[in-house]
Amino acid sequence: MGQIFSDFSKINFSTPEARAKVFAALQYFASGKGRIDAERKKAAALQALTGPGDFPTQTIDIFKTFQALPSYDTGYEEIFDIRDYTGTKKSGYKIESIEDGLTFAKVTGGGKAKVFKMAGTEAEVSFDLYGGGLNWLRTWIDDEEYWGLENNAVSFINKAAEDKAGIFYALVEALGAGYNIAWTAADPSTLANTDATYTANRDAQTLNAAAQAILLAVKDKGYGVTYQNIEFIVSAPIQLVGRLNKALGLMLQGFGGSPSQVAYKFRILPTTMYSTTTVYYVILPKHNLTGGNRMNLTIFNKFDEESYSDIAVGWQRYGGAIGDSDQLRRCAVS
């Protein structure tokens, strides 16, 4: 039993209908619906994977249960307000009142997405198309090497999701130097650098300084956030998580129940996606940090006689932007 296919013995490439079942299972996995419970997956699979005229409903018995959970980073979805445009005919969406923003667009010729600055009262965020493919050699089917077939497919889907996440994290990393917060002095200032709490104390003061800077910068922008109702996200490379947890747990006094050194609410979202591991980001999430999905990962396939393989190509279409850089601060750790 695998992640995509509940029963490898039912994999069959001998007819177009049989191949359709295999790629329908692959599409179902790619859609993310494999995260729901197994019983609901069984019921949903029949509806989600049998479009009119696709293939006979009675042949769909290959995917009885799905065990897959995403192994890719989806933390950016808690930072950006990701909107669903899949049922629309839009080529993009507009954001207004841009203070100092960033967006991305796919480089022509299949290159990586490029992040660029934007400013003004209004801007259009376009939905760009991203694609990739995989080959399933028929020798894998002939020799019943189904684990190789499935692992290849899982890697393909995860890579598509990873590339998408990487673009959104690249927006965060492209934040201008004007939004940097220096490693803030300890409080009290007399705290010796040999003290066991010295580093955590300075990190706590840095977190406080970043949150305060964000709140003051956005106070007149209509976001409706206050000291009492906001939880800041700390988007941090995994190398800094232990250190930041110490800062968040630091008390003003050395006994349980004493007030925290940290004056605001923070939640750490670790990631491996940042290229630099010596800074982290304090973020007021959502609001003018936006994204849009125009087409979820959709898989097309055909048999290629010349290579004796089944070719699957996945396409997805999306866009995103930081409309207000005041919602973020980049924090130093030294």
Protein architecture, described:
With 334 residues, the protein is of the alpha/beta class. Among the domains are: 1-69, no CATH class; 177-287 and 326-332, no CATH class. The chain has seven helices and eleven strands. The strands form two sheets. Strands 1, 2, 3, 4, 9 and 10 form a six-stranded mixed beta sheet that branches. Strand 6 (231-237), helix 7 (241-248) and strand 7 (265-271) form a beta-alpha-beta unit. The termini are far apart. Mean pLDDT is 82; it is low at 35-40 and 45-70.
Summarize the structure.
Helix content is 28%, strand content 30%. The chain contains 7 helices and 11 strands.
Note the main attributes of this structure.
6-stranded mixed sheet, 334 residues, 28% helix, 11 strands, alpha/beta
Elements, N to C (H/E): HHHEEEEHHEHEHEEEEE
The overall pLDDT average reads 82
User: How many strands in all?
Assistant: 11
The end-to-end distance, rounded to whole angstroms, is: 49 Å
Shape designation: elongated
Residue stretches low in confidence (pLDDT < 50, at least 5 long) are 35-40, 45-70
Q: What is the CA-atom radius of gyration, in angstroms? A: 24 Å
Helix content: 25-40%
How many strands, what sense, and barrel or not for the largest sheet?
A: 6 strands, mixed
The percentage of residues in β strands lies in: 25-35%
Structural class: alpha/beta
Number of helices: 7
